[in-house]
């Protein structure tokens, strides 16, 4: 991939689009019978924090690492919660519905990479939330890119 290929952060529309996405997503979460109990004590700025996280993952500013406790903090927020498969599935479903609602780009290149990360992240979150989860060695946020189909490929 060359330097002229935009990051996924730029492609989605930067911090503004990510904030609209997470606001819309957690609005749905709060009304969802499967997920609402898990998020009952969620702080008002939680959606904004997750937008900052996603921005860093998709190649934007390293603002979660610099200002929000980085990878260890995210890990600590999932640890011990015992996320169940049906909760993860609902999380992904509502996330994608929110993405469509706020106009996240629908091109095949972007969506395949975007869904790939959401599948990866949600499965890791579920695994790390189990009571018997083994502590990992990672301390930095894993970034995500276009994978096999960057923009402009045939
Ligand atoms: C790609 C997938 C995911 C990402 C990127 C993600 C990201 C995050 C981040 C960054 C935080 C900490 C926010 C902060 O700094 O305050 C957090 C907290 C949390 N996440 Fe996730 N998460 C993912 C998947 C999930 C899933 C699948 C569930 C459950 C179904 C879940 C449940 C929670 C809960 C319950 C919290 C704590 C909320 C609170 O503070 O009360 N997450 N997540």
From TrEMBL:
Domain of life: Bacteria
CDD domains: TrHb2_O-like
Coiled coil: none
Alphabetic keyword roster: Heme, Iron, Metal-binding, Transport
Positions with a binding annotation for heme: 49, 73
Gene Ontology MF, one: oxygen binding
InterPro entries xref list: GlbO/GLB3-like, Globin-like_sf, Globin/Proto, Hemoglobin_trunc
Family of this protein: Belongs to the truncated hemoglobin family. Group II subfamily.
Protein name per Swiss-Prot or TrEMBL: Oxidoreductase
